[in-house]
Amino acid sequence: MNHRLRESLRALLLLVLLSSSSALQAQLQTTGTPGSADATTTISGKQLPAPQPPGKGKTGPTVADSKTWWPPRVVPKKGAPNVLLIMTDDAGFGVSGTFGGVIPTPALDRVANNGLRYTQFNSTSLCSPTRAALLTGRNHHSVGFGVITELSTGYPGYDSIIGVDNGTIGQILKGNGYATSWFGKNHNTPSFAYSVAGPFDQWPSGMGFDYFYGFQGGETDQYTPYLFQDHTQIFPWRGKPDYNLSTDLADEAIARMKALQAANSDQPFFIYYAPGGTHSPHQPPKKWIEKFKGKFDMGWNKMREQIFANQKRLGLIPANTQLTPWPDDLPEWESLSSDEKKLFARQAEVFAAFAAYTDDEIGRVIQQVEDMGELDDTLIFYICGDNGTSPEGTLLGTPNQYASFNGILDIPVADQLKLYDVWGSRETYPHMAVGWAWAFDTPFKYTKQVASHFGGTRQGMAISWPGHIDDIGGIRTQFHHMIDIMPTIMEAAGVNQPEEINGIAQKPIQGTSMAYTFKKENAKTPSARKVQYFEMIANRGIYSEGWYANTVPPHGPWILNAAFPPIEDYKWELYNLNDDFSQNHDLAAENPEKLKEMQALFDQEAKKNNVYPLDNRQFARSMEPRPSMTVGKTEFTYQGVNPGMSDSNTANILGRSYTITAEVTVPDDGGNGMIVTAGGRFGGWGFYILKGVPVFGYNMLGLAQYRWAAKEPLTAGKHTLVYDYVYDGPGIAKGGTGTLKVDGVAVDSHEQPNSIAFIQVMDETFDVGVDTRTEINAKDYILPFDFTGSIDQLHIKLGTTQFTPAEQKQIKDAHDRVND
C-alpha cells in the first residue's frame, strides 16, 4: 500500500470517528452548568446505569482551596412522552365494543378514536408468557416463560426466570430517567420466589420499577386480594365492605401520578397498568351486574353473529372474512334447557359487567392524565386481553374456579342456580361456560391456551399519541406481536437498546417498532414483522409474510384433566391470511410443499428461541418440584405468629398423609382463634380453637366441609394438639382418615371421602396464629380470628406423595417424551 493511499484511508477513518463522536454528542442533551447542582444530561443508553462522568471539581486542604462538582442528573431526551401501558386480562378479539363486541368499552373507544386500532396484533395465548414478551421485547421462550410460572420446568425456555441478559422496558426507561410504576397483575415473579426472603431480582423492583402496587400470580379474589405494595403484603380491604380491587388500583395509579407531578412535573412517567379484569374470578360490583340484566338472553350463537356483523360494519375485518364454524363438541344455545340458559346468561352478565367495570376504572386513569394537562404528551397503549377469552370455566361454568382447576368439571346446573343471586359476589369465585369464551373470540376458532389459532392469540389494541399519529381514528392491519410494544416505546422515547445492564451483556431485542404505522401514508405499508412463531402446551403456529401454518389441538382446553396424544400425531393446517383473515379454509392438502416449508421455518424459530422440548402436559406439571425453600422438605417447625406465607414455600399436604402437632398455651377460657391455616373460603384447611374447643376443618373447594372437633373445651395451661391424617393412596384426590388428639388422647376420628387434587387456592396464604384473608368455615368463625393463646411450637410432618401405578407411568412417559 503506497503512502498516499495509506494517508487517505487514515483521514477517512478519522472522519468516520469524528462523525460518530459528533453523532453521539448530538444525542446527548445537557442543561445547566456542568458540575452544578442543577445540571442534567441525557445518555446514549448503551450502558445502564450510565457510567458516571469524571468529576472536574477540586479538593484542597480547605473549602477555600476547593471547588464542588456534582454529577449531572440523568433525564430523558427533550420531548420524550409519558407512557401509559394498559393491558386487561383473558379477553379475546370480540369482547370489547371497540372491536365489534356487545360490551361497551368507552375508555378503549377513547384511545382508539384519538389514535389507531390494530386488528392483527397478537399475544402468546397465556398470561405470564404474554407479559414476559411485553416486558422484555423478546419471545416468551427466549426469556424462560414458555408457560405460566406455576407450571414451570427446569428447561431454559420454561423455568419462568427472566435472565439478567434480558433487560426489561422498566429497567431501560428507568435507566434513561423515567419514573416507573407498575399497578395490578404480576404473573412474572416465579411462584417459588413469593417470600419475604426473596430473592427480589424477579420482582417488579428487580425489573426496573420504582413502585409496585398489585397482586402476585395469575388471579386473585377482587374483594380480598393477595396484594403487595412493593415487597410487603397489605390488606386495604379490611373494614371496607364495598372494597373492590379494580377501583383500588385506579385510585392508587391516580394518586401516584399526582405525587409524581408534584415532586417533579418535568420528569416523564412510565406506568404499566394491568388490572385483574376479566380473568376469573369474575367479581364486579353489584351495580355493574344490574346494568347487564337480560343482555345475553339471545345466547352465544346469536351473540357471535352480532359481533361478526359489527366487525364487518366497522371495517375491522375484511369484507370476505368468513365466520368460522361452531365446534361440534360445544352445545348450540337452542339445544339447552331453560335452567341451563338461565344460568349461562347470568354467567355472561357478570363477565360483561366485569369487563365494563374494568374499562370504566381504566377510563378514570386516562382522565387523570388529561386533568393533569399531560394527555398531549402521553403515549397510550390499551391492549384488550393478554390472550383469548378463557375456557377454564368448563362446559357448565363454575361458582369456584379452583374446583375446575382440580378436575371437578361438572358441578350440576341445579346446584349452581342456588347461587344465581350472588353470582359474582364475595360468596363465589366464578367463571363462565366455555360457549361464551368461544363466542367472545369471534371471528376466530378456539380460546385462551391455544397458540395455534387466533382465538387464543388475537387481541384488540388501540394506541394514541397526540401530534404523532396523523390518521386519527384509523385502522391498522399490519401483523404484530407483544414483543413489538417495547421497541415502539423505545423509539418514541428516543432511547437505545443497552449493550450492557449492570455490567451484563444483553441479548438482542427481538421486537420490531410499530411506530411506522403512526403515519397515514403508511396505513397500507406491509408489516415490518415478517416472521413470528407461536407455541403453548405443544400447540404450534408459524407466520411468514401472510402465510400461516399451525397444528390442531387434540381437544379443547376446557377439558382440564384429559390426557394428550403423542405430540408427533398432531395434525397440521395451512392458511393464506391475505385471503382468509379468520383461518377458515385449510390449504394443507392443496399446497403440501408450502406446508413443509412453513414447518421447517417453525423448527428453525423453535431452536432459536428455546421452544424445545415440547411438552403437552397441563396441570400434571404443577406437581414437579421447583427450587423453593421447601423443595425436598418433609418437616416444618414454627413458633409464635407467622402470617402471609405463600403456599409455594410452605408445607403442601395434597395427596399424602400428614401430622400437625401444636404445642400451645391457652388462657382460662380455653382459648380462641386460628393456630394454622392454608386456604380459605374456596378451599383449604385450618386447625383452630373455637371457644376453647380444638377443631380441624377441611374445606373441599366449597363443595363440602369436613370437620373434627373435641367434645370438651381445653383447661387453662399447656396442651399438645395433634391432627393426624392417613391418606387412602395411592392415587390423586383420594380421601383418608383424620384423627384429632388432645394431650395424646383421640377425641374425634372419621373418614374424609375426597381431597383437593392438584392446586390449593393460590391467592390465599399459609398463616400461623392468624387468618389473614378469608375463613375456612364461616359457620364456625368470622375474621379477625387471631389466636388468644400462645403457640409454643407448631410442627408439620409430611408423608410421601402417592400416585397409582398408572399415574406414575403417565408422569414417567411425559418426562420421557420431554427428555427425548
TrEMBL record:
<feature type="signal peptide">
    <location>
        <begin position="1"/>
        <end position="26"/>
    </location>
</feature>
<comment type="similarity">
    <text>Belongs to the sulfatase family.</text>
</comment>
<protein>
    <submittedName>
        <fullName>Arylsulfatase</fullName>
        <ecNumber>3.1.6.1</ecNumber>
    </submittedName>
</protein>
<keyword id="KW-0732">Signal</keyword>
<feature type="region of interest" description="Disordered">
    <location>
        <begin position="29"/>
        <end position="71"/>
    </location>
</feature>
<dbReference type="GO" id="GO:0004065">
    <property type="term" value="F:arylsulfatase activity"/>
</dbReference>
<dbReference type="Pfam" id="PF00884">
    <property type="entry name" value="Sulfatase"/>
</dbReference>
<feature type="compositionally biased region" description="Polar residues">
    <location>
        <begin position="30"/>
        <end position="45"/>
    </location>
</feature>
<dbReference type="InterPro" id="IPR017850">
    <property type="entry name" value="Alkaline_phosphatase_core_sf"/>
</dbReference>
<dbReference type="InterPro" id="IPR050738">
    <property type="entry name" value="Sulfatase"/>
</dbReference>
<feature type="domain" description="Sulfatase N-terminal">
    <location>
        <begin position="81"/>
        <end position="495"/>
    </location>
</feature>
<dbReference type="InterPro" id="IPR000917">
    <property type="entry name" value="Sulfatase_N"/>
</dbReference>
<keyword id="KW-0378">Hydrolase</keyword>
<dbReference type="InterPro" id="IPR024607">
    <property type="entry name" value="Sulfatase_CS"/>
</dbReference>
<keyword id="KW-0479">Metal-binding</keyword>
<keyword id="KW-0106">Calcium</keyword>
<dbReference type="GO" id="GO:0046872">
    <property type="term" value="F:metal ion binding"/>
</dbReference>
